[in-house]
Amino acid sequence: MIDGTTTAKEVPLNSKSIFIFKTFQIGTAAVVMMVVLRLSIGCHFLYEGVWKIAHPEFSADGFLTQAKGPAAWIFYAMISDIDGRERLKVADGATGKWYADRWQKLQHKTVRKYRLDDRQATETQEIYQRFADGLVGYLEENSEDIAQYFNSLDRFQAARAAGNNGAAYQKKRTWDRQQELRKEANQWLSAVDEMELAYHNALWSALSEDQRQRGALPVGWTMSDLINFAVTYGLTAIGVCLVLGLATRPAALGGVAFLTFVLLTQPPWPTIYPPAPEVVGHAMLVDKNFIELVALLVVATTAVGRWGGLDYFAENYVIRAYKSLKEKLTIREIE
Hints:
There is one protein chain. It is flat, with a radius of gyration of 29 Å. By secondary structure, the chain is mainly alpha-helical. It has a two-stranded antiparallel ribbon. The relative contact order is 0.13. The protein has helices at 28-54, 61-65, 72-76, 97-114, 118-141, 143-161, 168-205, 209-212, 223-244, 248-265, 288-300, 311-334, and strands at 8-13, 16-21. The protein folds into two domains: 8-57 and 227-334, no CATH class; 81-220, no CATH class.
């Protein structure tokens, strides 16, 4: 065995010689360290996923809204109505319509799912109407400030679309202004979200104990919910597979995809504003996420899952058995 080198043999072919390289061979120490690398990355991914499961309040929205660089718009689009144009709409006949329609649908689904009687159906309709009226009242009360916010947002987006954001001070001003506008919108959106939570609790209180046994309110999934679920359980699954050495290559490629996603939201490029906080260190082009991504590519392109992992048993006792059975059936068909 030649540690970290290759061997070659000369083969005659049409009076010429070519070199055919044999497979690289590595030593025991390298194999052990590759397994350690796989386990280390697996533990990192697994803990990230488990932590998010233990903290159901986790949301990727905050991370997505902080995306920067040329691909930032892709991640902003993943958040429904990121600037609140639909949710905060204040107009004749449309004030609060985004939330009101959603709350009305929930009331109808609640009636059907829990098979409410006429009294309960009437009660839940009254609950809906009370909250819908409160929503309209809140938005109208703040209508002047909201209108000023939309005017400021229009001017900001027009100025950004016009370009001229190449200078460092202009990038800083654009980013800071974007964050200010979103902070301004969030003060109203957060208040309405609290109102929505209170609405859910009121509907739940209208149910009997037997009805509550049928499960949670049929709120439905938003795009943010789907992203949170995918991130949480995707990280967990990748971590479990890497730790166990099961389906190692697909798991490693899944980790590469996730880290590519992270790098696109926070590229460590010197021209991107804002720069990463100094507390996380200093990086240019290559940061910790990129290094872990490269390490996962190493894991994906080696047999490390079969070195101290369940892929060894899958390869030798499942895949080979399946191939052997398939060959036998093929021979029988030929005979």
